[in-house]
Amino acid sequence: MIRIAIVLGCVCALASSGTAMVGGAPPTSEGAGRAVIMLTGSHGFCSGVAVGRELVLTAAHCVLPGADYKLVEFDGAGQPALKDLAVIARHPDFDVNAALRHRVTADVALVKLAAPLKVVPAVLAPAGGSVAVGDRFVVAGYGVAVHGDGKTGGTVRAATLVATGQPGTLQIRLADPDTKGERPGLGACTGDSGAPVYRDVGGALAVIGVVSWTSGPALSEGCGGLTGVTPLARYRAWLVEQAGKMGSPLAP
Questions:
Q1: Which tens digits make up the pLDDT trace of 161-212?
Q2: For domain 3-15+34-121+234-246, which architecture applies?
Q3: How buried is residue 19: exposed, middle or buried, by Cβ count under 10 Å (0-12/13-18/19+)?
Q4: Looking at domain 136-231, which CATH architecture does it have?
Q5: pTM of the model
Q6: 9 three-state secondary structure
């Protein structure tokens, strides 16, 4: 699995092998990619998704205390600009030590920006529902496309993955349907932490979780094997509550 290390207050993914959104996932700025954003900290970067005009959903391990974070917004020419964050709310049940040990935890955070985003926000999947092995999901993030080559990051890429193992409300494991996690395939990697995971709900994409970890093939270290997802089922009410406290509603 990808190791998680605390570096100057930032929890960053350190991939030891593989490529990402790996496996040749295509770039996209529409559909699953339209609301995806990038967050940068003291060391490394993460992905997230706009879920309101001023709100971004990401992984809690992407926005730990003790570091400064910025949102990276790209203009029509692809030039980046740094935007300030106003408020960061990590779920109170998030345990960074559990994350370091690759254990299940409430790896969810909601960020309020200092100024509204220009993108059309994504919607959260409705409460209820279940996930079965073989169900299809779309993952979209800014992560690197070639391991070790930071220049291949910064472009939104999307991949369709399927649920495997024993999916539940604590964790969902996704794999490339062609390689099933046993051989190198599509999956999240460095920079895709916090990326949105969508499922089709009534013909439209809705966010059901965020990327928390990855593995290489056959549970080796790296990327291109499994993509570990923290589903929002247990945390949806908290997100709605936090959005209310921040005075900025979630997208309807």
A1: 999 999 999 999 999 999 999 999 999 998 999 999 999 999 999 999 999 9
A2: Beta Barrel (2.40)
A3: buried
A4: Beta Barrel (2.40)
A5: 0.89
A6: coil
